Amino acid sequence: MLDLINVSYDTQIPNNVGLSSDKKVLKALERWHPGYINWWNDLIPQNFQESMVYLRTAVSVDPKGWAKFDYVKMPEYRWGVLLAPQVEDRRIPMGEHAGELAWQEVPGEYRNMLKRLIVIQGDTEPGSVEQQRFLGLTAPSLYDMRNLFQVNVEEGRHLWAMVYLLFKYFGKDGREEADDLLRRSSGSEEAPRMLGAFNEETPDWLSFFMFTYFTDRDGKMQLESLAQSGFDPLSRTCRFMLTEEAHHMFVGETGVGRTIQATLDAMNKAGITDPYDINKIREMGVIDLPTIQKKLNLHYTLSLDLFGQEVSTNAANAFNSGIKGRYMETRIDDDHRLQGDTYVVRTVKNGLIVAEDVPALTAINMRLRDDYVRDAAGGVGRWNKLIEKSGIDFRLTLPHEAFHRQIGVFAAIKADPEGNIISDDEWEKRRDEWLPSKADGDFITSLMKPCFEPGKFASWIAAPKVGIDNKPGDFEYVKLHMA
Amino acid sequence: MTKRIEFQVDPAAYRHWKIDYDGAVANLTMDVDENGGLFDGYQLKMNSYDLGVDIELADIVQRMRFEHPEVKVVVMRSGKDRIFCAGANIRMLGGAKHTHKVNFCKFTNETRNTFEAAEEDSGQKYIAAVKGACAGGGYELALACNHIMLTDDSSSSVSLPEVPLLAVLPGTGGLTRVTDKRRVRRDRADVFCSTEEGVRGKRAAEWRLVDEVIPNSKFDETVDRRAREFAAASTKADVAQGIALGPLDRTFHEDGSVTYSTVEVQANRAGRTVTITIKGPEAKPPADMTAFEAQGDQAWMLRAAREVDDAILHLRLNEPELGLMVWKTQGDAEVLLAHEALLMTNRDHWLANEVLQYWKRVLKRVDVTSRSMVALVEHGSCFAGVLAELLFAVDRSYMMEDEFEGDNRPIAAVTLSDANFGPMPMANGLTRLATRFLGEPEAVTAAEARKDVGLEAEEAEAAGLVTEILDDIDWEDEIRIFLEERASFSPDAMTGMEANLRFAGPETMETRIFGRLTAWQNWIFIRPNAVGENGALQRYGTGVRGEYNMERV
Ligand SMILES: [Fe+2]
Ligand SMILES: [Fe+2]
Question: Quick check: B164 and A359 CB within 8 A?
Fold first, then answer.
């Protein structure tokens, strides 16, 4: 009998889907593998490829003890295909098929829709690795460098997860799509990634932390809603990916928190109480809180754009077909069909932001975005606790959903962070108050000096409270290969 | 739909298109204003279009020829990111009456045909530079261009998703151009037309869905280069300056009638009939083409064509119940033919060519107008040359024979000219006379031998040029009875019968579009699977799929 909990390493590709007996898919994956390795090798700077990184690798899909930690060279990381265990008698949770047995094969009529969703999800995974490719060079510590690489290899594995689905269930089309996932590349003029936020630069480590906090959280919401899918293999894949995604958001939240902490500590030490005394604060080699707010504004709003149009036919179709659910679908107390229901969507009418009831089915994106906003507020609250505790009078806030948007109804207007509609002129004048300016970027870049000594941290970031895998503070998370 | 749909557009007020003229190359950018829909109830998202967007496009294509003859290549692009054009707006289609849908499709088809033919007719070549999703009507726009360039960014695609997504057809020439123009193998066409996401990259070129696939980083420069190459290779003569197309001289009346400078549209709503009278030129023609150019849009040949064109479009969209069109002319045939002769003898002059080509299009518009049409050749009329073509476009014609009491107008005559034997072909590629005399080709030869001569009733009848000749005694009654009878028939049966009888002879891509494709589309447009309460078109956007009656008909 197939062992569906523990990962089998009997093929080149670790898996719990019985790949060794699924010759067709195995062969296809093996054919794709070299392209993937090339992609990875071309991406990450060479000296890091040869460094030993203390990484966790999945060995089972059992929530308890699914990973083991060890030193590994990244190109030798065992990227695998891991699906959460199959739930017996699982039913489709929503849409017109609600209550029917979940599909183990792709239903022909939904093939295209499913494929599109998988490709879009798959496209984001390598996208972020590409965006972050040079960050290793300026890591503020070996601890952070290790976290970066952990996130990177797992995003790589998420790509594998999606590619497996494409190979297994979508035939020739699926293979072509898998090739194109390696062809597109973040920010490329030739073939950019599909979603805007994945073509933006991640120029510095604060951006990386903001990205993993805000943008990986979009990923989490998408995975949560795909985990509801009536197409069981997709659901199982996403459920396992979520366990990895949690770590990415941990890296983001603690990274921003530690950045704030370093600033607070330096301010208190120097007796500075005014958070807007920016020059003095910066002179100490830390990032002032107003600039952190600007970074937050940028990454949060780019992430909101990832939810797409507030009112969306595609989202409605996907929900109704049972392909993609809502956040925590099974815990929502309604009929899970939504055919007569409405949902409140904010929109712009005659120059004002107004709330409007629209058919709930078409507002699936909006609903997920609302859930996201609530979810994202949690960490911001915890950052504010740190600030409060330090006695400095400052609060970080999530800007209004109309602020700085490129997609959806608010793309047509300009608004300040409080959600007041303003003129284009006013926007141009005040933009730098709200979003990182060139000078802010230059300043942050000036702080991005590598700090590769075990146990040491760059000036602008505090040490973590606990180590990875409970390792001591001076643990050498990366044994650098310095050629 | 109470507001009048206006086909005259002020180019300073385009809402959906931008044009940038750069010598021999014009850059045409589709940038549809979401909130600029012709009617309420939908937004023109993702560069989707409605009739209003297409009216602007038709205006641009028309002005390109007359106002910008220096242009040899037109590059059509999208002003939006990641989307070329999403096609006809689905919510608009879902909300529109059947009549509107059909007329919308007809007009968009005519516009596509017009810019498609611009290369052959006027030496203006259209390039579609496709970046982003090019879906449905969007791909049909591209298909009507003479050259399609697609960027290879691994997400831009061309597609015809109508069938799987909406349960209707790509009815603006899509199905036909894929097989007849692009000559895509039919099994590949089958795959293409039933796959929602379409085809991208190299395969699009391999299947001949596009002409070129270009690396994204080189796309813009390749498009620019290609445009310049085409312009350099063009055999179109250089023209320094075009003529301006000013607003029409036009007055609308309460009762539905419209007065133009050369056309009188007289509505009889109670009788469901409209009489269109074209008044021939009174003044002598301009001495030469220089003088013609100086007259510009006031030259009779151009002015009349524009006015007839506008009248037909107005009647089609705004007066759906005027089911019977009666065509009349009044004027001096000789003077008219002198005007026509100036153009016919100067056919290599750009403007002469444009005006003649325009008459060709106007007459084709008459051909595909789904109204019963009759021509009355009365005394004092000038059915000569291009206007005589109307006799062969309509379903029947009646001619006055001999003198009528109290009528001192010149005796009715029909005069053929060179214009009737080549330059004004129908959609089937034949002249109207060749189509008319499909079973007796010698009648065409005989008619040609008698051109430039005014043929009075008996001769015209003998030559087969009119349906019936009637004298003073019978005329009034016979005509009245015919009109009353015709106006009482089922409009559907009339439309179907006339459309079938009008286009004898060979099939062309154009006849297949207006006949086969349109007819199937119009059938689907009334079937519940598409337009029923639970049909795909109605349900589009709700997330709930259409419910189909699975019975094959
Ligand atoms: Fe991921
Ligand atoms: Fe992630």
Answer: no
